[in-house]
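User: Here's a structure from my thesis project, written as C-alpha cells. My advisor, Dr. K., wants to see whether a designed sequence matches the one we expressed. Can you design one independently, without my sequence as a hint?
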C-alpha cells in the first residue's frame, strides 16, 4: 500500500515537473512568437509610415504642379494683353504696375529681345546669371529660384512674349518664398519639403529644412552619396513611378526618411520631403503602445482564465482529496488515508507502536432506536474525543460506520496501554451536561489491540487488531482484547469447526436437549425449550454459545434450526402416536432466517411431515432480531401466526427493545431475560428491578401476552415471580437442559403417566 503510495507520489512529482517544463516551453514559444510578431508588426508600421510619406509628397507635388501651371497661365494672359496694347517698352511699365497688384505678384518685368529690362520699379532684374532667360527667349516656360538683395529669396517664372508667332521678349514674375511656401503644406514638426530641379538645384525650400539635415545644406546633403544609404531601388522606382521613399542614415547615425515625387507637367522638378525618424518613431510608438495595451488586456484576460481554471483545478483536487482521504461525517482521516499514513510511520520505525481498533457494541440498534441523526451525533462525539486523545506522532481515523482506529506510541507495558485506552472510553461515555449526546444512551466498546513488531505490513497489522476486536462481541462491558497467538489459534479452531459442521450434522453429532418450562402456580411442566448441543468426537460437548454465532456467520444455522425442529416434531409425533398428551415445545430461530423468503414454508413442511398440529410448536425469536428489517420481520411473524404456530420473544430486556415495539408485534409469549432477575435475588420487596419486572409483567398481560421468566435459579426468584403473577418459569431451579429421553421420563413422571 505504502509502496503504491510512494510510487504514486513519485509519479505525481514526475508529472508535475513534466507539466512545468511543458508550460515553460510553451511560454518560451509564445514569447518568441510575440517578439517575432512584434518585429513584423513594427516593420509593417514602418512600411505604413513610408507609404503615408510617399502619398503626402505626391499630393504636395500635385499642388505645386497646379500652382506653377496657374502662374504660367496668368503670365501668358498678361504678356498677350501687354504685347497687344502697348508692346514691350516703357509704355508697358504702367500696365505692369497695375497688373502686379491685381495678380498679387511681388515683382513683374519684361525683357525685350535686346535684353532690355522693363519692370514696374524701373530696375533691372538683379540675378540674370541664375535665371535662364535664353530658354524663355527660345519659347520655353522657365521657373527658377532667385535670390537677390532687393527682392530677396523667391521664385522667378518666365514666359515668352509673342506677337503672333514671333517672340518679341520675355515676361518675368517673381513671387516671394513665403507666399509659395503655403503650397508645401507640411504640418509643424512632421517634416519639411523642398522643391528641387533635376540638377539638384533648390527651387523652393522651407526655413526649417536645414534642421532636418542636421546642420548640412541641401547641396551638402545631396552630395553625400555613400554616407547615407537610401534604398537601392530608390532610383529605379523614381524612374518607374515618378516617386520613391527611402530611409537614410545621417552621419550622426540618425535616421532620416526621404521621399520624392516628380511635379506633374514639370518633369524637371521634384518635391522632396524629409521627415526625421523621430516623427515616424512617434507614430510607430503610438501604434505599438496601442498593440502593447491590447496585449496587456489579452494577457490579463488569459491570465484571468488560466487563474480561474487553476482555482477550479485546485478546488477539484481538494474535493477529490477530501472525498478520498477525509471522512465526510467526522472530518477524521478516511480508511485509505489512515492506512497510508500508518504504513509510513510504521516503516520509519522510530517508535514502537500499537494498533488499536474499536467499535460500538450494537451501534446498529442505536441508529434504529434513536434515529440516524442521533447516531451521527454519537459518532462525532467519539471522533472529537479520539482526536483530542491522540498525541503528536500518533494517528486516528474512522474506518467505517462505528469502527474507529488509532496508531498509538507503545513504549510502556501492556497494562499502561490498556489503562490509557480505558481512559479514552471513560472520557467518551462521561455524562455530559443535560441534553448532551451521551445522556440518552450509554455505550460499550469492543476493542482489539495489536502491538506492532517492527516494520510490518499495515494489512497484517489491521487484520490482527480486528481479530482481537471481534473476539469480544458478546460482552456487555467495554473490553480490550490484545492480539496474541492463542487468539489466532482459537480462530483457526473456529474455522475448523465451521468446516466440520456439515459432516457432524449428517453424522448425528448435534444433539437436541430439552429444558422444561413450569407453570408458576401448579409448578408442573407445561412445555419445554429445545436447545442444541454438539457432541464433538474430540472436543467433547460444545455449547451453542460457542458455535451458534459461527454458524450465524456462515448461514449454517438454518440447517441446525430445521434439524432441531425435525427432532422436536419427531418427539411430539411419537407422543401423539403413543397416547402421551403433547405439550408445546419451543424452537429457537436465528435472526438469519429473516432474510429467507420461504422460511415459513420450509418450517411448515417439516411440521406437517410429522403430522404435528402447529399449536404444539413455538418459535423463539431473540429480542435483537426485532430491531432490524421491521417490515420483513412483521411479514414473517404474520406468516408464522397465520400457519398456526405460537411465537415468543426471547431474551426480552437484554438489549434495547422498547415496550412500544411490543404493541405492534403478534407475540404470544414474552420471555424475560435472566438479567431481569439479577436484582430480584434479595428478599426485599421494593427493589428497583422488582418494580420493573412487576410492571413489565402487568403490561405484557395487558397486551394479552403470557410471560415466562428465564434463568430462574433460586427459590427467592421463584417466589417473587409467583407474587408478580408471572405465568411460566424456566431455569436451573427446576431443571437444566437435558437429553430427550431424560426429559421424556421427567415429563411423564411429572404428569404421573
Ligand atoms: P436461549 O434461547 O435464551 O436459551 C436459554 C439459555 O439459557 C440456554 O443456554 C440455557 O441452558 C440457559 N439457561 C437456562 N436456564 C438457566 C439458568 O437458570 N441459569 C443460567 N445461567 N442459564 C440458564 P444454551 O443452551 O447454552 O443456549 C444458549 C443460546 O444459544 C440460546 O439462548 C439460544 O439463543 C442459542 N441456541 C441454543 N440452541 C439453539 C438452536 O437450536 N437454534 C438457535 N438458533 N439458537 C440456539
Ligand atoms: Mg431461547
Ligand atoms: Mg433466552
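Assistant: Designed independently from the structure alone:
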Amino acid at each position: 500500500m505504502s509502496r503504491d503510495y510512494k510510487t504514486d507520489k513519485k509519479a505525481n512529482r514526475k508529472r508535475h515537473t513534466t507539466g512545468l517544463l511543458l508550460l515553460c516551453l510553451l511560454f518560451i514559444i509564445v514569447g518568441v512568437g510575440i517578439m517575432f510578431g512584434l518585429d513584423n508588426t513594427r516593420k509593417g508600421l514602418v512600411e505604413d509610415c513610408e507609404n503615408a510619406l510617399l502619398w503626402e509628397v505626391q499630393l504636395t507635388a500635385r499642388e505645386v504642379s497646379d500652382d506653377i501651371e496657374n502662374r504660367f497661365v496668368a503670365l501668358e494672359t498678361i504678356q498677350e494683353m501687354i504685347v497687344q496694347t502697348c508692346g514691350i517698352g516703357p509704355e508697358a511699365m504702367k500696365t505692369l504696375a497695375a497688373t502686379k497688384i491685381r495678380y498679387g505678384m511681388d515683382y513683374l518685368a519684361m525683357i525685350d529681345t535686346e535684353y532690355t529690362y522693363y519692370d514696374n520699379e524701373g530696375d533691372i532684374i538683379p540675378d540674370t546669371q541664375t535665371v535662364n532667360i535664353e530658354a524663355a527667349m527660345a519659347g520655353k516656360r522657365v521657373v527658377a529660384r532667385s535670390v537677390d538683395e532687393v527682392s530677396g529669396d523667391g521664385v522667378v517664372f518666365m514666359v515668352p512674349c509673342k506677337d503672333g508667332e514671333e517672340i518679341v521678349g520675355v515676361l518675368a514674375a517673381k513671387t516671394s518664398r513665403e507666399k509659395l511656401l503655403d503650397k508645401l503644406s507640411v504640418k509643424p514638426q512632421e517634416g519639411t519639403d523642398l522643391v528641387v530641379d533635376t540638377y539638384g538645384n533648390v527651387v523652393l525650400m522651407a526655413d526649417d529644412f536645414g534642421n532636418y539635415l542636421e546642420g548640412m545644406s541641401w547641396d551638402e546633403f545631396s552630395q553625400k552619396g555613400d554616407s547615407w544609404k537610401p534604398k537601392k531601388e530608390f532610383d529605379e522606382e523614381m524612374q518607374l513611378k515618378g516617386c520613391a521613399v527611402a530611409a537614410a542614415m545621417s552621419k550622426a547615425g540618425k535616421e532620416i526618411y526621404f521621399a520624392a515625387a516628380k511635379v506633374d507637367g514639370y518633369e524637371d522638378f521634384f518635391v522632396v520631403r524629409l521627415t526625421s525618424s523621430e516623427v515616424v518613431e512617434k507614430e510607430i510608438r503610438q501604434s505599438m503602445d496601442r498593440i502593447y495595451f491590447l496585449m496587456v488586456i489579452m494577457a490579463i484576460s488569459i491570465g484571468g482564465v488560466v487563474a480561474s481554471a487553476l482555482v477550479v483545478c485546485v478546488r477539484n483536487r481538494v474535493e477529490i482529496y477530501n472525498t478520498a482521504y477525509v471522512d465526510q461525517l467526522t472530518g477524521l482521516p478516511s480508511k485509505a488515508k489512515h492506512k497510508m499514513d500508518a504504513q509510513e510511520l510504521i516503516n520509519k520505525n522510530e517508535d514502537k507502536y500499537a494498533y488499536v481498533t474499536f467499535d460500538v457494541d450494537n451501534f446498529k440498534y442505536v441508529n434504529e432506536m434513536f434515529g440516524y441523526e442521533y447516531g451521527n451525533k454519537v459518532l462525532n462525539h467519539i471522533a472529537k474525543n479520539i482526536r483530542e486523545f491522540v498525541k503528536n506522532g500518533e494517528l486516528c481515523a474512522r474506518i467505517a460506520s462505528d469502527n474507529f482506529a488509532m496508531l498509538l506510541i507503545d513504549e510502556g507495558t501492556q497494562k499502561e496501554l490498556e489503562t490509557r485506552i480505558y481512559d479514552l472510553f471513560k472520557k467518551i461515555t462521561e455524562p455530559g451536561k443535560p441534553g448532551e449526546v451521551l445522556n440518552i444512551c450509554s455505550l460499550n466498546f469492543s476493542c482489539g489491540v495489536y502491538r506492532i513488531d517492527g516494520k510490518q505490513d499495515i494489512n497484517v497489522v489491521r487484520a490482527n487488531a480486528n481479530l482481537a476486536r471481534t473476539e469480544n462481541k458478546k460482552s456487555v462491558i467495554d473490553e480490550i482484547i490484545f492480539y496474541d497467538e492463542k487468539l489466532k489459534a482459537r480462530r483457526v479452531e473456529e474455522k475448523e469447526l465451521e468446516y466440520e459442521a456439515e459432516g457432524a450434522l449428517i453424522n448425528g453429532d448435534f444433539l437436541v436437549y430439552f429444558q422444561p418450562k413450569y407453570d408458576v402456580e401448579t409448578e408442573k411442566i407445561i412445555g419445554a425449550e429445545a436447545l442444541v448441543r454438539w457432541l464433538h468426537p474430540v472436543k467433547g460437548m460444545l455449547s451453542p454459545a460457542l458455535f451458534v454465532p459461527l454458524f450465524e456467520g456462515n448461514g449454517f444455522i438454518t440447517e441446525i434450526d430445521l434439524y432441531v425442529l425435525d427432532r422436536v416434531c419427531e418427539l411430539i409425533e411419537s407422543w401423539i402416536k403413543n397416547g402421551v398428551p403433547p405439550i408445546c415445545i419451543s424452537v429457537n430461530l436465528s435472526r438469519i432466517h429473516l432474510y429467507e423468503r420461504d422460511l415459513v414454508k420450509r418450517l411448515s413442511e417439516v411440521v406437517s411431515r410429522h403430522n404435528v398440529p402447529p399449536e404444539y410448536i413455538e418459535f423463539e425469536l431473540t429480542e435483537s432480531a426485532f430491531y432490524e428489517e421491521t417490515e420483513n420481520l412483521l411479514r414473517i411473524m404474520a406468516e408464522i401466526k397465520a400457519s398456526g404456530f405460537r411465537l415468543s420473544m426471547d431474551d426480552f430486556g437484554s438489549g434495547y427493545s422498547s415496550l412500544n415495539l411490543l404493541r405492534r408485534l403478534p407475540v404470544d409469549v414474552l420471555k424475560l431475560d435472566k438479567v431481569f432477575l439479577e436484582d430480584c435475588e434479595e428478599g426485599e420487596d421494593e427493589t428497583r428491578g422488582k418494580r420493573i419486572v412487576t410492571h413489565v409483567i402487568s403490561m405484557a398481560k395487558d397486551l394479552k401476552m403470557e410471560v415466562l421468566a428465564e434463568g430462574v435459579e433460586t427459590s427467592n426468584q421463584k417466589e417473587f415471580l409467583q407474587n408478580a403473577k408471572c405465568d411460566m418459569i424456566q431455569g436451573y431451579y427446576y431443571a437444566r437442559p437435558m437429553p430427550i429421553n431424560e426429559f421424556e421420563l421427567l415429563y411423564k413422571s411429572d404428569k404421573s403417566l
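When you compare it with your expressed construct, this may help: The CA atoms of residues 193 and 273 lie 4 Å apart.
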